[in-house]
Each structure stands twice: as structure tokens, then as C-alpha cells.
Write a structure and sequence with these properties.
Number of strands of chain A: 13
Structural class of chain A: alpha/beta
Oligomer: homodimer
Number of helices of chain A: 15
Strand order of the largest sheet of chain A: 2-9-6-5-3-4
Largest interface: A-B, 65 and 65 residues
Strand content of chain A: 15-25%
Distance between the termini of chain A: 66 Å
Radius of gyration of chain A: 21 Å
Chain lengths: ~375, ~375
């Protein structure tokens, strides 16, 4: 037997910037061009974003090669759309010297980021998130991907953006339900890492719901800081990054059991209440604090109980397929207090007796 | 404007092994299991490899989850096949704790490697190349990908294998034309980096063509050493790795102009003769040495002149789209001598006056 070793070189540490402001969308393309010189730009966006006028603001009426995803949302989040994006790039004779600009919500960012990750073995992407959920969560951290017929994000890559530009003015045109659902990520970040942020949300909810620009910038900043802290300590979700799945074990099961009729943030709101109750059942937190969480979610207008007709066994089955599950036993991210995650033996996602989970789910459905 | 920096951590240097032997295919799965413990195995192969009996030898008749690509070759090298591979993995309830085993030639390795690179944001792949071209070239170095309707490897990822197992016994069943075409990569490696290897090929061609196991192991070893040296110095093809494109500027154009009726190695043989003539035209090499190269290629049974009916303008047009082209002007890897690549100002791919290229192509077609 002959043996030859192939060395794979180290990759140096790097960084990218999240820039938060309002009224800056018209300057993003020139800023991206300055950051990544001598590259052609290719914009990926969707029909909703175009209808809201943001593409026009971004390009300032100049002709830029682009692909507009339609229909919007999860329905298009598949390999077929990736092929259409790449076909459009090739039809425009673009090559490796291209930068992809992702203008839109979470699904646009996921698809544009994934297309950039695999086009000619990888070109840079600049994320320009336009929704509460994308600005708080999905545009930061480098997760990209599309769904298969059988599961979400079955195809994907870790592909860090070269920059993230958050213009909170884009939130003005966001549909009320989408806007509110995205705020669930802000509550999640506060619960996981920042008690002061939770107080801010509690006290300034009127300004938040009115989409006051200063409040929106503050949210974007705190969300970005928390998300950045977590992902830079565990970019490939080997442990700490799992805390961002707070509320997601039950939340994903609710999404699946309702056939995705709830928005992600709505399902996560229910999931966070469930996680709070599960925490209490295993001796973490107390009812008064959980009551405060429920009150904030309710003021936003997010659900805090299970929708009618969702059977507990269906949820349990869906949870056994959760990505944090080990040997089909789901694991949960739990809180010790508002602003503080629980960990056990260095693990941030912990196992909970099935009967406890079952009892809490039944209680939430009654 | 608020600004937040997200750090992306360094990735440490690593390595993987190429193991070369004969009669070891039946031990590969247990070796892969020992190398990457606690992972389910999933084999990707194609109908030709199954027909040759190699899948049976690999699994020793045990049931292992798999996907068999059909039809074989470039025709299947597209996103549709990637979707079928991933569907088969999901149907077998496989998740992130899977290792993909790529058993086959270059296209199988490219597809299996790419599916592994993007399944659930990346799982390990072990390459088990079964053809001369895959053993010499494509299984080593981490390039994976599939074609779009418009270009080769439009979709792809750099995804290093966790190990490469080369069992030269698999070459015994290889179709004569495929076997010979793959030897073009051996000649290429010798010309680029190893004059002694060129002498070996010249003196031992009878043993090589008879597929003598010792000769096959020697070729696999020298090819692996040369390829490993190059890719570990420039894994993402920013400069040095381009030398592996020797003969490919014209070769790819010939493939395209003949509608892929020539095998890759056949087109590269013509491309290497063209590169030799272009080198001479710009003052590199001499006719006697080029004559030796032509003689070796001819003894293998590879073409050294252009097939009838290929028009020079068609070739020039195709070359303007070569990936090494800058502003549509193709660049060429050239030799200073057998075993020594030419470089200019630190670049390994150099520009050549168009009239020189045109003259050489016309000469090869006459």
C-alpha cells in the first residue's frame, strides 16, 4: 500500500461588516463596488420587493443585471430557482468576477446566497435584507440553502456575506403580519442574551410597532450584535449557535403540522412559550417571568397558544426529525432567566423527558 | 451609520490521504468507517461501474444505501442528478452524520462530491476513483461540480475528500478508449513537473498499455504526488493550479467544437501538441522535444492533429470563453522543457498573440 498525504492549507481569520442606517439603499451598489472592486454586480430579488419600490431605490434607475424571483417565499425556495438564477447570470455572460447582491427577505437571502456559494465554485454575496426577520437573523451568519421536496434547507452551504447593508427604511413597506412575525426574532435574542434589551422591548413597544426609525435602528443594531457574537463563536453550528434555535424545536413542528400556514415568527412565538413551560417543568425559570414573555409576544400580536386542531402526537413525530435530535430524541434550548441561556455539561441543547414535552404541548393546546 | 463587525474564524490546516494498492476495494468501506466513525455510508456510483462488478466488490454483497447514476457520463452531470442523489439520501433517512462514497470515474466523483458538499450544508466524501483519468486527476484536489445547459461546472464547490482510495485493479475492466484517454493526464503531469516520469512512460509504454499492476501503481503514485503538490500550494486555483490546465485552452475548444464526441483526454492530447507548437512559436522548447511528446501520445493511441472539419475561427471563439481568459483573450500554460513549466512575471498562464495561435491551429488542421 502506497500512501500520499495531501495538505489542505489553513484559511486565515477574516471579518465582514454590518452597516445599519436609513435612507442609504441608493448608495449600496457603489459601496459594494468599492468594497469588491472590478466585479460585475448581479441582483437577486423577488416580485414583492420590486413592487415595494426597493429595487428602483437600489439601482437608482440604472440598468443592472438581475433575477426577480416569482412566486415569492418558500414556494420558490428550491433547486429550480437556483438554476434560473444561474441561467440568468450566464445569459448576462457573467463569470467568477461577479458579486451577487441579495435584496429581500429571508428566502431571497437564502437563495441568492446559495446561488453565489455554488456559481463557478463560489462568488461573493452582499446581503441587503429588507424584512424584520432577515435584518434580525437570516442575513447574518452565512447560512444559505434551498429546500428539497422532503425537507427544509436539504441543500445548502455556509457562505459568509462580504457585507450586510441594513436600511431600516425598507421596513416601512412591509406587510403588517410579516413585520410582526419578524419581531419574534428580536424577542428571542433578548431572551437568550440581553435582559436590558427585553426591558427596552417591553417599554418601547409602541415605538417599535409604529416602526419608528430610531427604534428600528436600535433593534437592528442589538439583533446584529447578538447574532454576530453567537455566529463568530460557532460559525458552523457545532454547539453554541444552537441557542439561536430557542423556540425552534416546537416552532418547526408547529410550522410543519400547520402546513406552513403560520409564518416562521408566529410558530417560533408559540415555540418560545412552549420552551418556557418546559423549562419550568424541569425547574428553570418561574411563572412570573414567563408571564412577561407571553405579554410582550401578545402585545406584538403573536400567538402564544397552539392553533386549534393541532394534535400532540403529530407535533412529537415532527420533533423527532428536528436537526438537534439525537437518536430521534429532540433536544431543547432552555433559559435560566430572561437574558440567560441554560447549559448542561457544556451543551446548549438538552434532552427533556418525553412525558414533560407531551404534557406541555397538551396544556398549550387546551 | 452604525457599524458592527462579524469575525469569521480561521480554519486550521488539515490533510487527507491517498491510498494506492490493488485488490483492496473490498476493504474500503471498513477503512472509511474507521476514518470517519459513527457515520452512515451512502454510495454514489454509475451503471457502468455496477456492470463491471466494482460495486459488488466494494460492498462484498452487503446492503448499503446507494444511488446508481444512469445514463453514465456528462449527459447526467447536471442539477437534476444532484436532486436524485439527495432524494435517495433523504428517502434512506440520512442526515448530517453521513459519509458519501464516490465510486467511479470523473463525472461520478464530480457529482458525488458536489452532492456531499451541499447536502445539509456539507458532509464528508471519500473518493474511490475507478478510471485512469479519475485516478490521475479528478479524484484529488477537491473540485466538484455539475454543468448548466450553458457551461461545464457552472455549479460547484471546493470540497476536499476525507480520503482517496485508488485500487488499480478497477482499471482492468476499463474500456480501451477510456483507458488510453486517461493516460493523457499522466503525460501532462510528466511534461509539467517530472522529466524522469516522461522517460519512464517512454520506456515502459508496453507495460503501461498492458495495464501491468506494478506499472499502474507507479503511475497512480507519481500522478498523485504531482497533483497533490500542485493543489496543496494553490487549492482554489488562484495561480499555480492553472498549470494543470496545460493543453486545456485548445483542448476544451476542441471538445466544444467536436460536440464532445472526443473524450477529454483525446482533446487534451491535441491541446498539448498545440501548446507545444505555440511554445515553439514564442521561442520556448524545440522541435525535437515536441517530436518526443507527439511520439508518446501517438504510441498510446491518442490523436496529435485536429480532427477533420474543425474550423479555426470556431476554435478561437470557444477559446475566448476559456476560464483563464482575461478580457476574452485566452491565456496558455507553456513549457520551458519537458518537466518544466514556463512562467512570466509570476504568472503560470500567459497571453500569446492571436495570430500565433491562429497559425498553429491552421497548421494542426492541415
Amino acid at each position: 500500500m502506497k500512501e500520499i498525504e495531501v495538505k489542505t492549507p489553513a484559511r486565515p481569520a477574516g471579518s465582514y461588516k454590518i452597516l445599519i442606517s436609513h435612507g442609504m439603499l441608493g448608495k449600496v451598489l457603489s459601496a459594494a463596488g468599492a468594497l469588491l472592486p472590478k466585479r460585475s454586480l448581479f441582483i437577486v430579488t423577488d416580485a414583492n420587493v420590486v413592487a415595494a419600490g426597493h429595487l428602483q431605490t437600489l439601482t437608482r434607475g440604472k440598468k443592472v443585471n438581475k433575477y426577480v424571483i416569482e412566486p415569492c417565499g418558500e414556494e420558490s425556495k428550491n433547486l429550480g430557482t437556483i438554476a434560473k438564477i444561474v441561467d440568468a447570470m450566464e445569459a448576462a455572460s457573467l463569470g467568477r468576477d461577479t458579486t451577487v447582491i441579495a435584496l429581500g427577505g429571508g428566502t431571497v437571502g437564502d437563495m441568492a446566497g446559495f446561488a453565489a456559494a455554488i456559481f463557478k465554485r463560489g462568488v461573493p454575496v452582499v446581503q441587503v435584507p429588507t424584512t424584520t426577520v432577515a435584518q434580525a437573523d437570516s442575513a447574518i451568519g452565512g447560512k444559505t440553502g434551498v429546500d428539497s421536496s422532503q425537507s427544509k434547507n436539504a441543500y445548502g452551504a455556509f457562505h459568509h456575506p462580504s457585507a450586510v447593508f441594513i436600511d431600516v427604511d425598507t421596513l416601512k413597506t412591509l406587510d403588517e403580519r410579516q413585520f410582526k412575525a419578524g419581531l419574534a426574532e428580536s424577542v428571542k435574542h433578548a431572551l437568550l442574551a440581553d435582559a436590558e434589551y427585553f426591558e427596552y422591548l417591553d417599554k418601547n413597544m409602541d415605538e417599535v410597532l409604529a416602526r419608528d426609525p430610531d427604534a428600528m435602528e436600535h433593534l437592528a443594531e442589538v439583533n446584529s450584535r447578538i447574532k454576530a457574537f453567537v455566529v463568530q463563536h460557532d460559525p458552523e453550528e457545532k454547539n453554541l449557535r444552537r441557542i439561536l434555535n430557542y423556540g425552534h424545536t416546537v416552532g418547526h413542528a408547529v410550522e410543519s403540522a400547520t402546513g406552513y400556514s403560520l409564518l416562521h415568527g408566529e410558530a417560533i412565538a408559540i415555540g418560545m412559550v412552549a420552551a418556557g413551560k418546559i423549562g419550568m417543568a424541569v425547574g428553570l425559570g418561574d411563572g412570573r417571568k414567563l408571564g412577561r414573555v407571553e405579554k410582550v409576544l401578545d402585545r406584538i400580536g403573536l400567538p402564544v397558544v397552539m392553533p386549534k386542531g393541532i394534535e400532540t402526537p403529530v407535533l412529537l413525530e415532527a420533533m423527532s426529525r428536528d436537526k438537534k435530535a439525537v437518536s430521534k430524541r429532540p433536544r431543547f434550548v432552555l433559559l435560566e432567566d430572561i437574558g440567560k441561556v441554560h447549559s448542561k455539561d457544556g451543551q446548549w441543547a438538552v434532552e427533556v423527558p418525553e412525558e414533560t414535552v407531551e404534557k406541555v404541548l397538551a396544556e398549550l393546546s387546551s
